[in-house]
Specification:
By secondary structure, the chain is an alpha/beta fold. The strands form 2 sheets. It has an 8-stranded mixed β-sheet, with helices on both faces. The chain has a two-stranded antiparallel sheet with strand order 9-10. α1 packs across α11 and α6 packs across α13.
């Protein structure tokens, strides 16, 4: 082989190792460790007194869902004297605050409103944590509906003194068959795979981070969010582990959300997710690299996954260059071409029944997610910071007068 061909081969095997390691090697390692060295968890025994908890719900202009969220929260199967609900309103300008006050008057002190000037979700969560009364903080989004037993399952592992946090399981409601976009099917498959990995991580120690839809932690372990332009759920939950406690995944604590409506909306959301997730990992500082197996989780489960799109084009081009030289590279190149053809077909047929079939929906959603990750990382490199948020619209850029581009 010439020097150019050797370089191309090195690129192929490096990129293939990174991509295969993220999507197959890391899950295989988790599966092996879960079988070889599972760590048991002590859960609250039947009849044992549950811990007091404050359900903190950060909101901004959530008039469409807040009444339903409060009704759902008050109907949870948890002792009423052990649970209070705190709605932290981040500068809401619609009827959200009025609705919360009305429901609080009916709830007999179990619901409180903490109105704030517009400050961003991170600051709202910090204020909510400071104003909480319960031993446990339960954090949940306004548009998430919890199963009646979710709080019982979520808080039961806190009977184990090693447990500092527990995250629930996000599930998507099914849309009508004809109205569903292939994006929703891809997201559903992605979350099932994601949560399977979380279950394995939890079995051997800790999950890499919680999902903001529903998670709980000991109030004493809450660390204020120093940088508002980061993923608050990663920033809060990762520091539970860094303080020496376990962060578990409880699949029976279910929170329901609407699936993404269509690809363009999901792409924008995923770009924002990448931006503030990578910032949250970067803000962990040296702990990102020096925390033993937990560092491997953070890197393999999250950071490298966001960097995969930077390895995919070189893999395609290098294997194309080597395809005439060896059948192995020709087969690898052909497999990639077929995958991207299926992804394109999934995109074009995303609104049709055929497009929602897994052979098309999975490649399409894989490409959508990686395109978003690519754009999200580029947005960080351009210095774009995202701080405030709107309901299901994600985070908004900081104002230009703060020295950050919009």
């Amino acid at each position: 082989m010439s020097a150019a061909e050797l370089a191309a081969a090195a690129v192929v095997w490096l990129c293939l190792a990174v991509c295969a390691g993220v999507y197959f090697g890391y899950p295989a390692l988790l599966l092996l460790l879960a079988r070889l060295r599972p760590r048991p968890v002590r859960r609250r025994a039947p009849g044992e007194e549950p811990r007091s908890a404050t359900l903190v719900i950060p909101v901004h202009n959530e008039e469409a869902v807040i009444a339903e969220k409060l009704a759902n929260s008050l109907a949870l199967r948890y002792p009423a004297e052990k649970l209070d609900v705190l709605v932290v309103s981040d500068g809401s300008t619609d009827a959200t605050d009025a609705i919360v006050r009305r429901e609080a008057a009916r709830a007999g002190g179990r619901v409180r409103l903490l109105p704030l000037a517009r400050c961003g979700k991170a600051a709202a969560l910090d204020e909510g944590a400071r104003s909480a009364r319960g031993e446990l903080l339960v954090l949940s989004d306004a548009n998430a509906q919890l199963e009646p037993e979710s709080l019982e399952w979520l808080t039961a592992p806190f009977a184990d003194p090693e447990v500092g946090g527990v995250c629930g399981r996000k599930r998507h409601r099914r849309r009508g068959t004809e109205a569903a976009d292939a994006t929703a099917e891809g997201e559903s498959l992605y979350w099932r795979w994601e949560q399977w990995q979380k279950a394995l991580e939890s079995r051997i120690g800790s999950v890499y981070a919680a999902d903001g839809t529903l998670y709980a932690l000991r109030r004493t372990l809450y660390v204020p969010i120093a940088d508002p332009a980061q993923a608050d759920d990663i920033a809060v939950s990762a520091r539970v582990v860094l303080q020496g406690y376990r962060l578990l995944f409880e699949p029976r604590a279910v929170a329901w959300e609407e699936p993404p409506a269509e690809g363009r909306e999901e792409l924008r959301r995923k770009v924002r997710v990448t931006n503030h997730s990578v910032r949250a990992l970067r803000n962990l500082g040296p702990a990102l690299w020096t925390s033993g197996f937990y560092s491997l989780e953070l890197l393999a489960h999250k950071l490298l996954r966001h960097l995969v799109p930077f390895f995919l084009p070189p893999l395609l081009l290098a294997s194309a260059a080597l395809a005439p030289r060896a059948p192995l590279y020709a087969a690898l190149f052909a497999a990639q071409l077929l995958f991207y053809v299926l992804a394109a077909a999934g995109f074009l047929l995303r609104g049709a029944r055929l497009g929602r079939a897994a052979p098309l929906a999975v490649p399409y959603y894989f490409c959508l997610v990686n395109a978003a990750a690519f754009l999200g990382v580029l947005s960080i490199l351009r210095g774009r910071r995202l701080q405030a948020w709107t309901p299901r619209g994600g985070l908004e850029p900081e104002r230009a007068e703060q020295g950050v581009e919009r």
